[in-house]
Each structure stands twice: as structure tokens, then as C-alpha cells.
Amino acid sequence: MIKSKHLFHNADKYVNPDKVLLWELTRKEVRESLEKGSIKAAILPTGSTEQHNEHLALCTDFAMATMISQQVALRSYPNAIVSTPCPVGYAPYHMGRKGTLTLRKETFQAYVFDVLESLTAHGINTILVVNGHAGNHAPIQDMLSNWRTDLGITLDLVSYWQVLSDEDLNQYVPTHKKYRAGVNHAAEFETSVVQAAWPERVRSVNMNEYDDAKLDYDKEADASFAKFYIRHFGKPYYGDGNENITDRTRQEQALCSNPENGLALIGIATEKISKILDRMICASESGGTWPE
Length: 292
Ligand SMILES: [Zn+2]
Description:
alpha/beta; binds zinc ion; Rossmann fold; single chain; 6 strands; two-stranded antiparallel ribbon
């Protein structure tokens, strides 16, 4: 939970954060809210259970997507409900690092569609997918216009970091300015936002510890990963020769993280995504087209 006077507020009144989470409600509560017309939209968080270098918990992407979704729903309370998050995504390329889970692309797309269809079946006609893992973006984006047609609803996708402008990043992700790569897997950006939201999910790892672990992700895959890779990609695994330098750079950039910057970034993302959701609700209510 985030403790900030800017968050968990709606028009200056406190809202119990559980009130916007579908899975915390009873069928009676959902039914009555739908009958009253107070639920106008759903937000579906999609994430991943995957390696985030040496220091971040594997839940980072689905935890962030869920938390931002919850913040957005609280801001527009009681208009939006957060659907149960998709905690495993499309991440086969992270499988060489221990702990990662992945779905096949088709499984992931089918899962997301089935949840969207379930929400639509309850009469919810506006749904925003808030995504927390880069590898999920294209598999959803590719299906979006088909799904809009199939379901007949106002539907969109936003990966939460996409709404941040260059100015936001220059201000709150210093390594972005330096390397033009601040929004980067497990590097400064993600470490700052996780530090802000759940400091216990960021372990302290310095570069001596990193180097002492003698990690080598350019070497040949071990037997179990090699088997997975061939099944998944139809060819043997080979590192591209940049894996180790990329991995180490991320670890180094993560050391520039700062929870105050993370809090600011969460606030900006929440505000901008809330505005997208408001416009979607408007489009549904006025019978307008989406995308605008
Ligand atoms: Zn991530």
C-alpha cells in the first residue's frame, strides 16, 4: 500500500481501497452496483512473473499493473472496478533467468480475451487493459481491433509507462537523460516505482555482490532451458553476446533509483491513465467511437 496524501483519495474523501477490487467484492455487491449503474468501466491489469535482475521481486510487473489500476479506480470511484490481474504473461525471452514463468503467446491472448468477454457478459461496456510488462504489449495490441469488433465495447490498452512524457522521465529518471533508456527493464525506473510502493520488494545488491555471483547469460543454455527454448522458438538457444553487458548495466542503473521519484511517477501515470479512462467512459455513454 502506498501512503501518500495524493493517493487513495476521491474528492477529498477516503475510499476503502478494497472497494474497487472485483475479487474482494461479493456477487451481491457487484450486482447491486451494476444495477445502480455505478460501475461504468472495468480495468484489467496484465503483468508477468519474471526475473527483474538481482534486486526486484518477481511480482514487479503484475503488482505494478494492479496497483496503478487500483489508483485509477480509486480516483474515479465508484465508476471503475479492477478485474483480477493476469499474473503470468508473455516472457519466453526471460526464461534463461531463474524464476521466470511464461505463457505461450496464444494462451496469453486467449486468457485476456476470455476475461474481457466475462466482464462484457456482465454488461460492462468499457474496459481498459493496464499492462505492466513490455512483452505483453504487442500480443494484446495486435488483437485489439478484432476484440473491439467481437465484443462491441469501448476497449483499449495502455502500458503504464507509455503515458510518461520525455519531460517526466528527464525529471524523475536521471539515467533516462544520460542514456536515453531510463524506462528499462529492472533498471532505475522500475526500481524507483517499486521502492515507492513496496520498499520490501527491493533488495539491496551492490555491484561487488553482483560481480561476485559471476553470472554468465551469454553462455550456452543449460539442458532444461535449452529444451524449453527449442520447444518455444523451434531453434537452439544462443546468446547474442550482449546479454551480460545489458544485465550488468541494468543492475548499475538501478542504483540510481529514488523512492520520491517513484512516487511522483506513479502519481503522473495514475492521473494520465485516469484521463484516458474518463474519455472512454464518455465515449461509451455518448455512443461515440473509440479510439476517438
Ligand atoms: Zn518489469
